[in-house]
Amino acid sequence: MEINTAPPGRLAGRWVPWLVIGLWMVLAAVMVPLSGKLSSVTTDKAVDTLPANAESTKVAALEDSLPGGEDNTFVFVYSRAGGMTDADRATVERHYNTLVKRYPPKTTTAGEDDDGPPTRLSTDGRAMMFTLDVSTAYGEPETIVGPVRDAAKDRPAGLELDVTGPAAIDGDMDAVFDGIDLQVFLTTVIVVTVLLILTYRSPVLWFIPLVVVGAAALTAMATVYLLVKGFGIVVNDQNSALLTILVFGVGTDYALLLIARYRETLHHHENVRVAMVHALRGAAPAIVASAATVIAGLLCLLAADLNSTSGLGPIGAAGILCALVAMLTLFPAVLVVLGRRIFWPAIPRFSTAVQERPGLWGRLGAAINRRRWMAMLGSFGILGVLAVGLAGNTGALREQDQFLSAPESVTGFAVLRQHFPELGGQPMTIYTRPAYQEQVLEAVKRTPGVAEAEPGQTTGGWTDISVFPTDAPDTPAEYETIKRVRTAVHAVNGAEAIVGGPSAENLDTEVTTRRDEKLVIPLVLAVVLIILGLLLRAIVAPLVLMATVIVSFAAAFGGSVFVFETILGFKGIDYSVPLLAFLFLVALGVDYNIFLTSRAREETVRLGTRDGMLKALSATGGVITSAGVVLAATFAVLTSLPLVMLIEVGFLVAFGVLLDALLVRSVLVPALTLLIGRRIWWPSRLSRPTAEPPNVPRPLAEDEELALQR
Questions:
Q1: d(Cα 178, Cα 186) in Å, to the nearest integer?
Q2: How far is CA 572 from the centre of its chain?
Q3: Which CATH number applies to 10-40+201-343?
Q4: 8 Å CB contact between 634 and 653
Q5: Could you tell me if 284 and 328 are in contact, meaning their C-beta atoms sit under 8 angstroms apart?
Q6: Under a CB-based contact definition with an 8 Å cutoff, are residues 194 and 10 in contact?
Q7: Every domain range in the chain assigned CATH 1.20.1640.10
């Protein structure tokens, strides 16, 4: 790829940088107000995030459409170690009556006992419970779980209460995401600021990329808001947080690469505009190819059936595109306007004789060249040892184990299961036609693993049935019960029955995610491989790079599983982590190989394969390592959040990025290139370098240089 200007005097004149800055100021005036509206369109409702065609999604949609069907269900579990007293029982009944008066149901449930509150005493006499359905007219779970708990605070000493149930878990989960966008944004800004200051050791230079990346992030948020309003894309809190991480991570990477090339050209050109044009001609093709790889990989998520996963595709792609445009327009314009002094105190001086020193990365390249086999085998050995961790616990993480510190809704389920083992699982909800209610109810009661089945209300041409499994929530045994219940109700001729509920939603989400992995992962590999082939105009090099990235992903995943299981004590891997981590690590991990190999290809036509790779490693080693550290640090921000799923994604991607930047790109890829030799570029003509390499950006002509200087 070549960036050319014709005539360059018009595109890089004195007024062009100011025009670019002015256009971005106008854009900011329009987009910044819209960026603040993104939180107003984020949703974590089940019907919006579940698999598009899953049975539990149909139940959730039906619940939302029927009067009373969208109620939030809370379970109150009272317990006393020495056994429930008469005062305790009176307190439970008083709490129930108070709550029902405060949150009156819209309709009366069929079969409800009118002689007293529907409280239940455990067989061991040490616990009581009741279920409370609160209409969404009073608010969403996160807004009413607090008042509901406060209403039952007044109780005798020694009487413990845990408010749990599906609505309580949703409320506690929403509390984790409350304010997460601002927290992630501020934490990311702080982390990137510190790293930029350490990288440049300049009192001013760090501030410029930070401001430009911030502008890109706000523009991306506004763009995503417009996409949601225009196309109905699903944005949940998780995807909103990932958007911020992606824009800051890749945007800062692009800034580091452009600054490094700009600093290099400033030594060879006295005029800053001339130097910037040369810097863009050298760095922009790799940056554009990198962004195209990530965008293409993200858009592969559109093939996923899970709404929250498919929604991340256009959201992330919009963020990467905004970062790319900002870094190739606004950032160069600001640097040109500020001139060389922005690098103070280490201002790059123009000199006709610039002496190149080998430096750390040059010495590393020389060492790899001397011990190519050792470097390759040692790298594969380290990656192989890390991959052994895949033999650890890679089972799915239960919803109750998602919290870093178990909230009341999670501990309440443990108490419920202890005293009411027959109600140990989360209730399933079955909708069927009224004429088939009795037949469906009988079929469910005969199903193994079902503790109880109770008929509910009839409205809108549907009847609901609540089913309580005997097994603990989100366990393989409970999932098998859900499958058996579905088989049983579907066998009732004409019943038109559908089975949903919290655990059924989790089951459908897990099954859909596994199916999406089988579709999206090969698609991502194919798309990235095609982009690498077009960029490098070769077949062998893309295959080698993809192989190293896949091995690196296996090592990062295995090492992370070991940390999660042995050090952090997590009880599994969230079902969404493997696909997200694979996408980010393949797309982002290939970035560093693109930056290295594109420079190696540029140098190869002049120096040959061996010297070209060594020159590329020496020239790009420092900046790519800095970029990898910055990107890893931005994803590591997710580990500061109190949700296991986000910690797993943040740690795994950060660890994988560091592996790619410090080992795969720095040692393994150079070693493989040196071992394979010029055949790495087959069938490109680079395998036999010519005197006039066609793919090196041509130098500016004398009249173009003068035009730029004017």
A1: 14
A2: 18
A3: 1.20.1640
A4: no
A5: yes
A6: no
A7: 360-399+509-685
Helix, strand, coil content of the chain in percent (nearest 5): 70, 10, 25
Characterize the bridge pairing of strands 160-164 and 127-134. Answer: unpaired
Question: What are 504-533's pLDDT values in tens digits?
Answer: 988 998 889 889 999 999 999 998 888 888
11 with 336: CB under 8 angstroms? no
Q: What pLDDT score does 111 carry?
A: 39
Q: Return d(Cα 3, Cα 360) in angstroms, integer.
A: 31
Q: Which architecture does CATH list for 427-500?
A: 2-Layer Sandwich (3.30)
Instruction: State both tokens at 289.
Output: 């190819």
Q: Domain 360-399+509-685: which CATH class? A: mainly alpha
Looking at residue 306, what is its pLDDT?
A: 85
What DSSP string runs through 542-595? HHHHHHHHHHHHHHHHHHHHHIIIIIS---SB-TTHHHHHHHHHHHHHHHHHHH
Question: What's the token pair of residue 448?
Answer: 């193994």
d(CA 429, CA 454): 10
Contact, 76 vs 533, CB < 8 A?
A: no
**Which residue in the block uniquely carries the two structure tokens 């763009």?**
223
221 burial via Cβ count (<10 Å: 0-12, 13-18, 19+): buried
Q: What is the pLDDT of residues 543-564, one digit of tens each?
A: 998 899 899 999 999 999 999 9
Q: Identify the pLDDT of residue 557.
A: 94
Q: Which residue has the higher pLDDT, 178 or 633?
A: 633
Q: Is the distance from CB of 387 to CB of 554 less than 8 angstroms? A: yes
Q: Say how many residues make up the chain.
A: 710
**Distance in angstroms (rounded) separating the CA atoms of residues 88 and 155:** 8
- By three-state DSSP, how is residue 425 classified? coil
Considering the chain, what percentage of its residues have pLDDT values greater than 70?
A: 89
pLDDT grade for 399, boundaries at 50, 70 and 90:
confident
pLDDT band at 69 (very low <50, low <70, confident <90, very high): low
Distance spanning both ends of the chain, measured CA to CA? 27
8 Å CB contact between 572 and 397: yes
**Matching residue, tokens 């001729």:** 493
**What is d(CA 369, CA 614) in angstroms, rounded to the nearest whole number?**
8
Fold (topology level) of 69-176? Alpha-Beta Plaits (3.30.70)
For strand 120-121 and strand 428-432, is the pairing parallel, antiparallel, or unpaired?
unpaired
What residue ranges of the chain are covered by domains with CATH 3.30.70.120?
427-500
